[in-house]
Amino acid sequence: MRIAVFHPGAMGSKLAGQLVAAGHEVHWVPEGRREASKLRAVEAGLIATPFAQAVERADVVLCSCAPQGAVDIAKQVGAAGFSGLYVEANPLSPMSLREAQSAVPEATFVDAGVVGPPPTGGPSPTHLMLSGTAADQVAALWAGTAVTPMVVGAEPGAASAAKSSYALYNKGKAALAVLAFQLAEKHGVTEALVAQQTRADAGSLKDPALPDQLRSVAWRWGPEFDELAETLDNAGLEGDVARALREVWTKLT
Asked: pTM here?
């Protein structure tokens, strides 16, 4: 298969690299991308190609970027008349997902969500949640790789819900740990907080440097919590919880 990926970020480059390992021809568009993206693309074995050619020749478009850019990418790809498989692999709310899908009307749309770290073959699995009529076809693209596809539904939306459910728990827990460290630091009791790491449910409290470590992803996790808030609202649940946690990431950027 000939595949175009937008974009080779920390996750997108690894997903694309596994596609290369599976024998696919994977293209990326270097225009406007930073040097770090270029280095990741080279490492993953991706082929630098102008946008028009990358989309025109692709059988599959994989969109894996920060959630705030996902709809714009879909609009650009749709405007180019793409009619192959469009894999939307960003953590989007139902409203944003519908907007992305409507932007590629000629394509076969597959909803996707990544749970776990970038695929490297390490001990923690990378699950690629998939839903849509062509979910099985997309799952086959990563056969034999470090990515573990999981078809979770026949309609777009199920994969995003699976991703969002875990992200709310996992990244919400991280946000609470950041707040806990900040509060402990204000009162000079960080050492006492870290001492609680021995408890079965307190693994996030091992490293008081956690807030600084998460600054590098806060710019991306913040908008993800915007999407989570809308997802919770759509389900009749407490979206304000995600909005409050979003402020943790806002203050880290």
From this structure: 0.93
